[in-house]
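Readers of this paper often ask what the protein records in our data store actually look like. The remainder of this section carries one protein's record, kept here as part of the documentation.

:::
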Amino acid sequence: GSFSQMFFLWFSLPVRGKFAVVRKCVEKSTGKTYAAKYMRKRRKGQDCRTEILHEIAVLELAAACARVVDLHQVYETASEMVLVLEYAAGGEIFNQCVADRDEAFKEEDVKRLMKQILEGVSFLHGNNVVHLDLKPQNILLTSESPLGDIKVVDFGLSRLVSSSQEIREIMGTPEYVAPEILNYEPISTATDMWSIGVLAYVMLTGISPFLGDDKQETFLNISQINISYTEEELEHLDGAAVHFIKSLLIKEPENTLQFNETESLTPDQKAVSKRFKFEEPFSALQEFIY
């Protein structure tokens, strides 16, 4: 049957997408609540069905991972594809990031949620998928109170990385993009790790560390790693939390290099390879997360 035969529609959810609308819906046969993501197949006059199929394929690939939103079903109409997704009742972690500090995440919350985010991202990277748009709007919670578990969503910018071909693209959300994207250098799984560093800073302080008055200033702040670790919001934090952020937001860390296999790399490659060390099994994260 069609989507409208199988589901009741409730209301739109606050999703900021140019080509997608997300609506809360209920499956008639089971009474279960889902989020229906309506995606236009033609955007700016171009056929985007292939890109939507890519997003579906990534969601299917990640079905085994509890930290990635679950894809329940897909419907297709003449103009749209409808992805019926698991409903995350707690909404975006963005809400806690911009809340007054008394309603914001506690440091213990961030440790637990960051561990879950890393589990999700590690699963993707293990399957050669880079998300490339990790930000508070794309991390949802199963419940808000009590604080639930995270679900990574929106794979519209995700890419498959392989050793045989390089990807160089300008993409992502300005505040969260890594220096290599701005420099039009190859994208890797380390590109996501940079975004996780920015995400941790925002979750802990409510401050977007590189945000300037305009896009140019933001990009300049990122390429110069113009970031403050003296904000009062950081002063009361566990030193391991700040160390965790510093170890991810690096561009040229020649002086902190502890392994020999990267001696032949250029400074920027060294920086990216340092971020790689955070992949598995999160050894350097132990102090912060556990």
Summary: The longest strand covers residues 20-27.
